[in-house]
Amino acid sequence: MTDVVDSDELMRRMQRARACAAREERTWRARHDELRSADPEAAREAAVRTVAYETVIRVLDEVLTPGRRTAGADG
């Protein structure tokens, strides 16, 4: 990846990445809910993936809108 991009394009790419992570987070959360009673091991895996995507979203939110989340909102 040697293309040089301007700041607007970089922001658009990060916004698309955030939207993708949000879709994946919803997908894995739904999968966790579906599998909770039927397949506990798969439900745990889905829960881990949900947390991972939540973390990606949190990081991208801070990059895209710094300071929007308060320090106490994380925990």
| Main β sheet profile | none
Share of helical residues? over 70%
Structural class: mainly alpha
Total domain modules: 1
DSSP strand tally: 0
Number of helices: 2
| Series of secondary-structure elements, N-terminal to C-terminal | HH
Inertia-based shape:
elongated
**What gap, in angstroms, lies between the N and C termini?**
37 Å
**Unreliable stretches covering 5 or more consecutive residues:** none
- Radius of gyration, CA atoms, in whole angstroms: 16 Å
Q: Report mean pLDDT, rounded to a whole number.
A: 91
- Assess the beta-strand content as a share of residues: under 5%
Write up this protein.
This protein is mainly α and 75 residues long. It has one domain. The chain contains two helices and no strands. It has helices spanning 7-35, 40-64. Helix 1 packs antiparallel against helix 2. The model has no long low-confidence stretch (mean pLDDT 91).
